[in-house]
Design goal:
With about 70 residues, the protein is α/β, with parallel strands linked by helices. The chain has 3 helices and 5 strands, in the order E-H-E-E-H-E-H-E. The strands form 2 sheets. It has a 3-stranded parallel β-sheet. A two-stranded antiparallel sheet has the order 2-5.
Length: about 70
C-alpha cells in the first residue's frame, strides 16, 4: 500500500506505479516524520521513499496519472 501524503498540487503531477508499503511525499520530509510517528505507535514494518516523488520522477521510475 502506498500512502501518498503530498499536497494536492504535488499529487496531481503523477503517482508512483505499483508501490507497496511505502510512505511518500514530495521530498521525504513529511514521509520521514510520519514514519517516525508510526514507529512510535508500533508500526515497525513501514518505509518511506528517500527523496520522495521528486527523486522518483528524476530517476524516471514508473508513474501513472492520479485517479
Amino acid at each position: 500500500m502506498l500512502i501518498d501524503i503530498r499536497e494536492p498540487a504535488e499529487h496531481a503531477t503523477g503517482v508512483a506505479a505499483g508501490a507497496r508499503l511505502l510512505l511518500i511525499c514530495n521530498t521525504h520530509n513529511r514521509s520521514s516524520a510520519t514514519l517516525r510517528a508510526l514507529r512510535q505507535r508500533g508500526h515497525s514494518h513501514k518505509r518511506y521513499v528517500t527523496g520522495g516523488m521528486s527523486e522518483w520522477a528524476r530517476r524516471g521510475w514508473p508513474m501513472v496519472a492520479p485517479r
